[in-house]
Specification:
The protein is an alpha/beta fold and 222 residues long. 35% of the residues lie in helices and 17% in strands.
């Protein structure tokens, strides 16, 4: 499964063909993870379409602009090489859901978690259930995820202030492979949304989209 997912990702990044219709089944979709517990997993509805469009322009990818919503415990999870998770509140995984997500990540999938303010204490507990033997570690600023097509010498960019804490990027590693990148106190997803949603200045939105593109590029190339 890991080999299959990596080949799909590399083929996508290498694609130089003309764009297919937006509803083409052949085009890879970004995935949005749906979870239980009451947290708003559906936050930032315009974020992933904008990120997909940006990657298509900047990286030469051919993502479908409509993302796929996938339950954490579903076998459909394995159809998405890259999955995004966000929200403001509680996150609960059943034992079966945690096992499914673990198998997905060990098998070659990649999870990007973006704390939309308030999910941090819950998502850490949930991911400890998925990988009880490893914990999040803060990534150094020279980690390759910050230096793909775009370079971020200070790590993950700060998009929204919230409590004023510095933005941080954390990772979960399995057998030396980064399987989950967690952007904390940054709110990348807010920066991916339509300009009218948060009225962020162009340079802030550009930084958010560029960092998002880095996360996708790294996930498919590592």
């Amino acid at each position: 499964m890991r080999t299959l997912l990596l080949l799909l990702g590399l083929a996508l990044l290498a694609s130089a063909t003309a764009p297919a219709p937006a509803n083409s089944a052949a085009r890879l979709q970004l995935g949005l993870l749906k979870y239980n517990g009451g947290g708003d997993w559906y936050a930032n509805p315009t974020a992933l379409p904008n990120l997909a469009a940006f990657c298509n322009r900047a990286l030469g990818t051919d993502f479908a602009l409509d993302y796929g919503t996938v339950d954490v415990g579903s076998a459909e999870l394995f159809n998405y090489p890259w999955v995004h998770m966000t929200g403001h509140g509680n996150v609960v995984f059943s034992s079966a859901e945690a096992e499914n997500l673990r198998n997905y990540l060990i098998g070659g999938g990649f999870l990007h978690i973006d704390d939309n303010y308030g999910m941090d204490p819950y998502v850490r507990v949930a991911m400890q259930q998925v990988f009880p033997e490893v914990s999040f570690v803060e990534l150094p600023f020279d980690h390759p995820i910050y230096h793909q097509t775009y370079s971020f010498s200070g790590g993950v960019p700060k998009i929204h202030e919230h409590d004023g804490e510095p933005a941080r990027g954390y990772g979960l590693f399995w057998e030396d492979r980064l399987v989950c990148f967690y952007s904390y106190s940054s709110d990348l997803g807010d920066g991916w949304e339509d300009e009218s949603v948060h009225n962020d200045p162009p340079e802030i939105r550009a930084a958010a989209l560029q960092m998002g593109a880095n996360v996708i590029e790294f996930a498919f190339k590592q």
